[in-house]
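Response to reviewer comment R2.3. The reviewers asked that we include at least one raw input/output pair. We reproduce the pair for Ectoine/hydroxyectoine ABC transporter permease subunit EhuD here without editing.
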Amino acid sequence: MILGHELVLSSSAAFAWSILPILLIGLRTTLLAMFAGFVIAVVVGMIFALLRRSRWKPVTWPVGFVVEFLRNTPLLMQLFFLYFVLPEFGVTLPAFWTGTTVLGLQYAAYVSEVYRAGLDALPKGQWEAATALNLSKTRTYRTVVLPQMIPRVLPALGNYLISMMKDTPVLSTITVVEMLNLANRIGDRTFEYLVPLSMVGAIFFVLTCVCSALLRGLERFVPQKGIALR
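Raw output as returned:
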């Protein structure tokens, strides 16, 4: 019994080592999708937040509708729409960029609300002081608003980064070969699902722990009263 158990463990370990390079290829795709999607979310989310602060209703209402639509519809539906419906209108994107775009846009809607909360948390006197000093809008945001807003929104942005990483397996539904997709393919060919799926789960767990630690370190590094932007 003991010998048989040891043989099974040895076989599982050898199998795990043999498929690790394959899973690491999928991990690269997972990380690329996460970071590309996060960049889109951070940039587009800021655009959404600033446009919604406009006093011009023809701007705020359409942007508000887009944000609510992105927040209140499933990620999978948006993914299928861009990948399967848009080609009927002559718009075709590679699967990877379709997935990262959808991922980034949906999280941009969430991030825009984080930015809005950060902007609203800024004391009214800061805006009044910038106006009294006759600062331009651009300089006001660069030297007054953003340095105070960034420390406030960092924890929420970090949470969304981790959530985005855990949502990347959804991209496999449009043929993006990420880590979980490869694990399933390995299971289909070898009829052994326990080892590859367990390895993917362990890799995700390690990555989320590393990201959480880095984000906590970044929060301690960034002064809570603001950062200097030139």
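Residues 1-9, 225-230 have pLDDT under 50 and may be disordered. Residues 15-221 form a domain with the MetI-like fold fold (CATH 1.10.3720.10). Further pairs are available on request from the corresponding author.
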